[in-house]
Amino acid sequence: MKDAAPAAAWRVPPEAYLATRPAEGGVPAPVSEYVAMRDGCRIAVDTYLPGDGTGRYPCLLFLTPYYRRFALAQGSPADPNPNTGKFRDFFVPRGYAVVVADVRGTGASFGTRDGFRSPAERLDSAEIADWIVAQGWSDGRIGATGVSYLGAAADFLASTGHPAVKAIAPLFSVWDTWSDNYFPGGLQIASLTQHYDRLMEGLDLDRRELLRDFSYYANPDFRGPQPVDADPDGTLLAEALAEHRGNFRQTGFMADLRYREEGLPYDPDYSSAAFSPYHYAQGIRPDVAVMSVSGWMDGAGYANGAIARHLTLKDNPRHLLLGPWDHGARIDVSPWRAAETPGFPLLAEVLRFFDTYLMERGTGLRDEAPVHVYAMHEEEWHALPDWPAEAGLRQLFPQADGSLGAAPGQGAAAFAADPGMGTGTQTRYERIAGIDCRSCYPDWQGRSAAMLHWDSAPLEAPFRLLGHAHADLEIVLDTADAAIFAYLTEVEADGTERHVTEGMLRVLHRAEALPPPEIAVPWIWRSFRREDAAPAVPGERMRLRLPLLPVGWQFAAGSRIRLSLSGGDADHFGKVPHGRLPRADLALAGCRIALPELAA
User: Fold this and answer.
1) Which of 162, 279, 327, 499 does the annotation list as catalytic?
2) Is this prediction's pTM over 0.90?
3) Are residues 428 and 562 in contact, defined by beta-carbon separation less than 8 angstroms?
4) More confident position, 251 or 457
């Protein structure tokens, strides 16, 4: 498969390393029990031990709100753990103990969730780590990993400074929850909160009729959360579920967080910072190894989260992996993929990481490049000494005739927000809402051309884009606020349009700022705080610099690079402003698109 790792990018490719670490034995049934927290809240945990379970092992901890394990219909062959089962089955036979816990207010655990990724869960993670190292099977070393919510929980565990935590691998997870996930560019993804809230209500309250809409949890053999071993008749589980009725609901919760780092109306200390890993970054000891993984179509900014984590924790042993994946690497998102299922052995690379820093095996990982990225359309991996690693910057300028030229343009252009303009229902946003999506932007044809757009001349040679493109716009609005979306498209020689990446900005948040030390980023940064927000002055010219989401993509010789602009994405984002359709007038002399290039 083309996305498998070639020797040119790794000294020891992941699949070659995996061949040296075959599975030994199976996965035993777990021991399931409650662990009491400082306030008496009981957390349900499952423990899986390698071999005969009589040795001492390093432990991988998974903290999940998506059930540590489902109860199954009698005789069902279904995997009771669709969320972390692949990790359990991969790591236990290779010598790792695996502990999976229902975070408070979820699954079979007691308690109530007072918000998304509550700070109380962070404190719980340290107490669960205390419990792990006190077990007779523990060798005193803990790692943590997992996808999305679980990846951020790994960050939180490390940020407690617990001395047993030696390595974390946050996979497809945020660094700043507000801007990486729910409010990219200051615009709320309205579709995300609605879908995610329905999923969590189905899980938190064991409302199985709601879970039928989510393929990962829709198996008719699932019978709600598995009770712990000491609760065979489910009495304790019923009590726990009753406490879950007080859980927060995502749609209302996120709507109360209109500005980044501004507290809830009823709790000024509870802001987006409280449930974002960056806020606790100083608590991560410099000896904790960190592996950050994301994909080019990983939601609204999870790749930004992986990059920011990597750059912020500069004193830690660290590795960054960015591939042709959606959220969780469930599919290969490249239009030129060899197969829907990714061919890259991601778990093998995660195994090598934990073998290096948790088992302290000689794996050669420290001799590898710290950054590995994939270029779509070229369909090749690249090893980089750091991020960013562009060799140059290609600038293209919108012209009055609809072309992208090599010199600044003249004249003007304009577009009006279209309330029906959307990007479809198979995009980078669906998977983060728990929706099963098998392709990314397969119906992009014609969408970019329906917007205000400019095309370059056919490329004389391939051009490899890597990193964050930036669109500079000199713009006049007729409203005090607006949403601006910029899209890059490859228009192939035969006219086929391929979505490459996109960026968005709410004009209210146009003020630029220097990033704080706990969020090291190479792109244009904004605080998105209330004190920095300012309505536009209708009729007044302003400059907007808009970063697009990062990507690795090779434009083919003969293809054209297209820049498109629109005033909304009706399929995913709320309308801005609510009651009017903004018009944007552009002075082309002040407009350009800057494209970072990776050298051949």
Assistant:
1) 327
2) yes
3) no
4) 457
